Amino acid sequence: MKFSVSLYSFFSALRAGEITLLECVDKAKEMGFDAIEAVDFVMGCPPEEMPEMAKKIKERADQNGLEISSFAVGADLLNGQDGSGDSQKEIARVKSMVDIAAILGAPRMRHDITMGQKGSPKSYAALVPQLAELVREIADYAQSKGILTMTENHGFFSQDSERVELLYNTVNHPNFALLCDIGNFTCADENPATAVARVAPYVKYVHAKDFIIKSYYDNDPGEGAFQTRAGNYLRGTIIGHGNVPVKQCLHILKKAGYDDTIAIEFEGMEPALTAIRVGLANLKKYWAEA
Fold it and tell me: What's the pTM value of the predicted model, to 2 decimals?
């Protein structure tokens, strides 16, 4: 088993000027990680500067003896990130991100699917045939670069275990798999353990994440929290400090034969460096016990 950390986990410290992006790579090594996960918007530069930044991240990772476990990219294959609704323009942009993944030396790239078709009442299932065709085009291109493409249970619309399972099976491409974020299922009000059990056979990469969960009928926790699809409250926290059954989810993945890489993705209010360090210690302990 290898343990990675998403550079997104450092985002609050980066934004506060407490650490630079390349120093995050050094810190990951110091904390005991085997790899880092790059993230498009965390790179903090316009698209035309991303190739050079990717080279710098790769060089710093190599200096530290760290792998680049994956590259995470935002996307909306139906609406486009610019909201134009031009799917082919968005496909071309995502393919350009595959090129960045190649510079990073990442073996995998996760891209979002869609936030839903604007102005349309179509269900997720009704859109899947169209989405699958677009996903295959990206998977084909990435295969030529030796990079596996993945979708994550992420973005509210493409979040539920049944939905990502349906998409995976409809795409039916050897170069397309699932990234399982064990915490994100709570955004769709799913039981994480039940959801992980459903998707475990298709998983090629894992995000470890924890949330403090409060019912809609509890007091609104205010700043730092957001609402699920059904109106419950979530706040990101240190792995092991929240309500996500992390060890149970790891047990399910281990039982299904998963033994590749788990990346911490922290998005809480606690100091990032402390949260990542404590989260890694807990994650290693839970994996050993699972």
Answer: 0.96
